[in-house]
Amino acid sequence: MNPLAVGSNVTLNLVPQSPINIGTWSYETTIIVLFYPNGSSVSTSYQGRVSFNRSSSELSISSLQLNDSGLYTVQGMEPVLCAVVTLSVREPISNVTLRANATDLVELNDTAIFTCSVSSGTSLSYRWLNDSSEVTASDRVRLGGGNSTLTIVGVTRYDEGPFRCEVVNGISNGTSQPIGLNFRFGPERPAVNSPDIALTGHIVTFNCSASSQPPSQFNWFFNGSQVATGSVYETGPLTLASHGEYTCVAFNNITGRNSTVSKMLTIIVNMAMVKVMGSQPIADYMFMMTCDTVGTIYFIHWMRNGWPLYAENRTDFSMNNNTLTFNSVQHSDNGDYQCSASNSLSNMTSPEYKLIVNYGPERPVIISPDIAMIRHIVTFNCSAFSQPPSQFSWFFNGSQVAAGSVYETDLLTLDSHGEYTCVAFNNITGRNRSVSKMLTIIGKTEESSKLWRLGQCMRLAH
């Protein structure tokens, strides 16, 4: 039956029922009723609120008050017995009210204090709710005043609520209206949205954002010097001097806090030309080709006849790959060479560079008769493998007599007998080679005719 509400009625009885001939009902140390075989006597202070049932020994109290709470005792002398009961009379709860010291708070700085009160009610128990979750004491959360106050130290945005207090006392309950908190926080670390690399002449837009309440104010700095305000910063046309660190500073004028983030912008020059350059290649000598570029270059790759080219025993690349070196260039290295240059934004491949290795002359070859008759004309033909083609000079017994690969003599005489030398010269390699041939001259006698015919036969046999 406990607890009981103020104004309610209660009957106290023995269980099991046991009639008492002589005894008393007492409240604490005050006798309420004295009863005996011929009657009973009610204390003056209880008259009108108390009734006693003689046959069952029950005591009824009407219109209970708060001061009726306490220990009630029935004492029997005939028969001898004693029984006690404790009554708890409580006032019903009404008008549960929740108050906060402030509802606009700065995150981490401020303390929230909630106070829960009622217009009426006794023996109160309090329970706190953050939205639908019960709030319990912790390092930041403190309960005081019999749990009627809730203190949150160093509030965060996750403490926004809504908060309510529930009050119960066993006979009634009540819940307050909710209170939510508004937080001023941030800025948290900003985020910058922008490219990392850009071309000269282009315009770059930087966007800065940060979680903050109220929204942050923004300032922009380039290499330490302020250049703009606002969350968006748009550069002018970029130059190489635009390369550097761009910093966004977010500031919250309520929390008094700021946060910064920086981003590097790399400026590159657009590629305008890629071309293979080389000097005159001469066989067996070192030869270099250079990838000549205009613009910002990060990588260079070489190709021969459309296939990738790699370093090997006779070829090597410079550290940045812009130079291809042949330690000893050969005919077999002939081909169409290209270099491909690239950066983070573009790539370009050069036109073909046709490599033709200059060489020679190799040892010349003379085609001519070995024997000739006087008054005849002899034609000497000289050839030699060479790139570019060789120039030729003719010498007779040490004296130059002609230029060109073909030398045709005048009418032969006996003085035309001797050594004919062909000299091949390559004006690119700077090299020359020579070969000599003896020409025998015979007169028109029978013997010489035989010799001449024999010479002709031998030449045909060759």
TrEMBL record:
<feature type="domain" description="Ig-like">
    <location>
        <begin position="92"/>
        <end position="182"/>
    </location>
</feature>
<feature type="domain" description="Ig-like">
    <location>
        <begin position="187"/>
        <end position="266"/>
    </location>
</feature>
<keyword id="KW-1015">Disulfide bond</keyword>
<dbReference type="Pfam" id="PF13927">
    <property type="entry name" value="Ig_3"/>
</dbReference>
<dbReference type="InterPro" id="IPR052598">
    <property type="entry name" value="IgSF_CEA-related"/>
</dbReference>
<feature type="domain" description="Ig-like">
    <location>
        <begin position="289"/>
        <end position="350"/>
    </location>
</feature>
<keyword id="KW-0393">Immunoglobulin domain</keyword>
<keyword id="KW-0732">Signal</keyword>
<feature type="domain" description="Ig-like">
    <location>
        <begin position="351"/>
        <end position="440"/>
    </location>
</feature>
<protein>
    <recommendedName>
        <fullName>Ig-like domain-containing protein</fullName>
    </recommendedName>
</protein>
<keyword id="KW-0325">Glycoprotein</keyword>
<dbReference type="InterPro" id="IPR036179">
    <property type="entry name" value="Ig-like_dom_sf"/>
</dbReference>
<dbReference type="InterPro" id="IPR013783">
    <property type="entry name" value="Ig-like_fold"/>
</dbReference>
<dbReference type="InterPro" id="IPR003598">
    <property type="entry name" value="Ig_sub2"/>
</dbReference>
<dbReference type="InterPro" id="IPR003599">
    <property type="entry name" value="Ig_sub"/>
</dbReference>
<dbReference type="InterPro" id="IPR007110">
    <property type="entry name" value="Ig-like_dom"/>
</dbReference>
